[in-house]
């Protein structure tokens, strides 16, 4: 690599972890587990990205408790039995020179729902559904489960579930951990006035609504090795009046920086069906840029409709972000990083078996 090398393919050091490039496989739910266990599907799905040169690979959301799953088929990290299959995947990825992180999540009121291709709305008890929880008793929509408002004891248990899952992530050999506080899931529900009508220390003011996330991050950072990076995913805005917005995201970013977070993964939406999103190429990059300019010492990752290497490189050159996460582009072409390198005139270090490929975008 030289100074003339596109930023997309320059390394980035995060604590003791050096990423070979800035291309990140974004967490993508696969709804293909049983009892939260990874299987051969996950090995092949995640392993292919390491073979083709992605700088960092994230698993899909791994639930920190059984009731925190989005669907009955979600990946999990609440039980020691889930360590061995995840460790096998991590060993394979490391053997290819890859790096892998796990996204830890609790779905809250958006739990116990069908996988997209199996149905819509709440899964009934006879099909494996369960009682969901949330900041208050308001459902995401009329077809989603009605949550039970969480007691202070339940809030404390959720925080400890994140800690226990983090410890398992270290045992399994993950290189990074991401706390999922976006897309309308539990930690995001506490952040937004549209899902949090509590009147205690976890509701009302900005300071109260961010309390749970800060407690979770603080506890996770305490047990996650300091030489390994900690990511947090946020929805920068609810895209709905009266909800979470960019100004609150910037304020929270400053607090998370002080808690030892290394990278903020900036997405948006997912909190309410009343959202009105105006999608377009790199439509969420502006939110990431706001955070980067307000808290320049904090690493920032952007995601969303960044479909070409030229667009990804432009965002990095502008200083809008430090990392580029892609989801659907990797589903369409698991060798996206290899193809992007060809397009930008870079020789990417990929598995020897794939070096003969000269794919063109």
Blueprint (SSEs and pairs):
Layout: E1 12-14, E2 17-19, E3 23-25, H1 40-51, E4 56-63, E5 75-76, H2 83-95, E6 100-105, E7 133-134, E8 148-149, H3 152-172, E9 176-181, H4 186-191, H5 206-209, H6 211-223, E10 230-235, H7 246-258, E11 263-267, H8 285-294, E12 299-303, H9 309-317, E13 323-326, H10 328-332, H11 336-343
Parallel strand pairs: 3-4, 3-13, 4-5, 4-6, 6-9, 7-8, 9-10, 10-11, 11-12, 12-13
Antiparallel strand pairs: 1-2
Helix pairs in contact: 1-2, 2-3, 3-6, 7-8
In summary, what is this structure?
It comes from Deinococcus koreensis. The chain has 361 residues and is α/β, with parallel strands linked by helices.
Instruction: Please give the share of residues in helix.
Output: 25-40%
Counting helices, strands and paired strands, the structural category is alpha/beta
Gross CATH architecture:
Alpha-Beta Barrel
Task: Please report the number of helical segments.
Answer: 11
User: How many β-strand runs?
Assistant: 13
**Helix and strand pattern:** EEEHEEHEEEHEHHHEHEHEHEHH
Give the overall silhouette: globular
Distance between the termini: 22 Å
What is the residue-mean pLDDT, rounded to a whole number?
Answer: 96
CATH class equals Alpha Beta
Q: Could you state the oligomeric state of the chains shown? A: single chain
Give the strand line-up of the largest sheet: 3-4-6-9-10-11-12-13
At the fourth CATH level, what is the homologous superfamily? Aldolase class I
What's the structural domain tally?
1
User: Regions with pLDDT < 50 over 5+ consecutive residues?
Assistant: none
Strand content: 15-25%
